[in-house]
Amino acid sequence: MPDPLRKLGGKAVASSEEWEQGRREEVLRLFEERVFGAGPVGRPRRIAFEVKPTEGWMGGSAVRKQVRIRSEGPGGENVVRLLLFVPVSAKERPVPAFLLINNRGSEHMDAAREKRSPFWPAEAIVARGFAAAVFDNADADPDHHDGFRDGVHGVFDPPGERPGHAWGTIAAWAWAASRAMDYLETDHHIDASKAAVVGHSRGGKTALWAGAADRRFALVVSNNSGCTGAAVSRGKGGETIRQINDRFPHWFCENYKAYNDNEYALPVDQHMLIGLIAPRHVYVASATEDLWADPESEFLGLTFASPVYRLYGMDGIAGLPMPTAEQPLHTNGMGYHLRAGGHDMTEYDWQRFMDYAERFLCD
Ligand code: GTR
């Protein structure tokens, strides 16, 4: 397993200063160049937020805000529709927020609250005093391989041949999460210094990359993210790098395909992606029957990231045994739980994320 605390030249990193002043940047660039790809734009020069607030939701306990995030680039305009339910208590004091990168279609984020989904239990999130925010990843980039013409690639990519490190679809979704954060920072009802980004499966891989690249997210939650998410690729069961690249050729950058059946040649592994989140909080959740994602390898992602957390005097989970089902392990810096059942994100998962946030994010 590559050592997060050893620079490419072999020099050891012994302090958080040394991590911050060189090694962190090196690891971030490696993930950009070899795995997710680099985007041509961060916060676009031309970005606008159109907000439509309405009162009286959830029995009067919430305000609904429908936000259109409009980003303009050389290829036209992209609109990400962000939906928020904010507890009315936010009028007295800004509230922390959970932002879900929704990869399961807009039926899980019904603005009218006629159709409720445990995948995004907005009522339960608001009841615990958090703002519930969500966007549909397809707004930023539809989840199919069209040669990177649609979505934000079509809006921002320079003309000509794409380099091997050009951003893939997961990087585009992560970019959109950062644009949602741009909005949250403008909303006086939200405490943007206490915002969590959450994703399930392909969305969980996205949440990790969003949180690694954008240090404004105070908590990163990765549910059943598996291959190229929280699970280390070396020795992983279930899905491999070859399988993910073959089935989803648009998710990562072209350079990543060099590691098909060749994970030991990668200069990084997924624990280093988690390490990039330090000293902010990271939460990984697995499910007992989700062997394609491989719970043990997801847990190892946290274990091997722990030395980076220790540089900041935070506990991490190194040395602790993997917990059994429904025995959450929450330390300062890292949270983990294993849910009994299959590949999904349920209200049980959300309640544990909120337990963690209440304890370590809120004062
Ligand atoms: C699977 C894929 C996984 C995971 C999952 C999902 O088909 O192999 O890596 O991302 O989809 O997003 O539900």
TrEMBL record:
Statement: the UniProt record of this protein carries the keyword Signal: yes
Keywords tagged on the record: Hydrolase, Serine esterase, Signal
Protein origin, superkingdom: Bacteria
4-O-methyl-glucuronoyl methylesterase-like domain boundaries: 164-313
InterPro entries: AB_hydrolase_fold, FrsA_esterase, GCE-like_dom
A molecular-function term among this protein's GO annotations: carboxylic ester hydrolase activity
Protein name per the record: Acetylxylan esterase
